[in-house]
Amino acid sequence: MSLDFESTTDWTPTDWTAIGEDSLNEAITLRRAIHADPEVGLHCPRTSDKVKAALAGLPLEIREGTSTTGFVAILRGGRAGTAGGNGRTVLLRGDMDALPMQEETGLPFASKIDGAMHACGHDSHTAMLVGAAKALCARRDELPGTVVFMFQPGEEGHHGARHMIADGLLDSPLPEAGFALHISPNMPMGHVVSRAGTLMASTDTLRAMITGRGGHAAMPHDCLDPLPIACEIVTALQTYVARQVAVTDPAVLSITKLNAGSAHNVIPSTVEMLGTMRTLSERTREQVRAAFIRMVEGIAAAHGAVGTPTIEEGYPVTVNDERATDLMKACATAIGGEGAYQVMPPMMGAEDFSYVLQKLPGAMAFIGAAPEGSDPRTNPPLHNTKMTIDERVMAHGIAMHCAVAERFLANGFD
Fold this sequence. Notes:
Helix content is 33%, strand content 23%. The chain is of the alpha/beta class.
């Protein structure tokens, strides 16, 4: 097939599609081994060991941190110094951790670990990145720069990327661009979807304690019932988002849990509130955070109660660099043809690749993995106990990783 990129005067691109297909069987084997043995959180030693075993014997420098079991594998191209200096450096990321869920797929390689499942596709992300590492190592002598393969745990709410950055794993060498792929069972197989600018939302966890005065439910006038106060706060928060947050820079604020009471005839002394907040800009994030604090404290105080708000900071907004997004689009179109790349609207999910994109320019894209014969619109989505993928997507992912790395090393963002 032809891989004809514009603005590339000194580069003859590789047919990565064929190489991805040749790598597929090994990727499937690794993905299934990881899928059957999922690990949650920042420490995924068995998964890391499987990845390191798959990379054994390759010309890679392995660097590990102290905060997680994540590591980077550094490939220094044979032509890195041909034009003076060390050439460009590009980062490719794959996340390794699973979710605390009970798998219900019925697959022969389903999770053997009670209460843990690869329901977000990280097993395939890891296998794709290993496949890309092997393929690029095979072409090491022709690479005019350095590739940093970032194998990261703790993406599912544990700030794994932030910990790896704090450990200095991205500092030497510091990549000049970073890229990541994320599978989606709700997109046609092999299609690549992304956008320049804001791709995904920030996420913060909201908590509040409303403290009143408990007593007999038959005599509420002798109590200070915190339940209607909590309900009033929920309603006020929804009104605030609907009427005071610009629709062009939206926010989602959902109170998902109220915990109070012990019996039908007892007014509790306290109500615990739990929720989430998502925004597509840091400006709106700060605005809604301030409103949450103000309303919890103010509405409770208006009733003579005490409202104690707490915000647990989650991931930042994921913002794609326009140049990096154009590069991914060009690679996706070259590999899959016209129509293989599509522009998506921003989504309210969150990603800790956002930490990487705060440190260096880059982009993340979704790649369709809908099983053959399925309807992408109705497939079990990510974070569902029955989520499955078409494993052939990994051939496309390996090809995309390699094409993106090769093009950036040869031409940067030009």
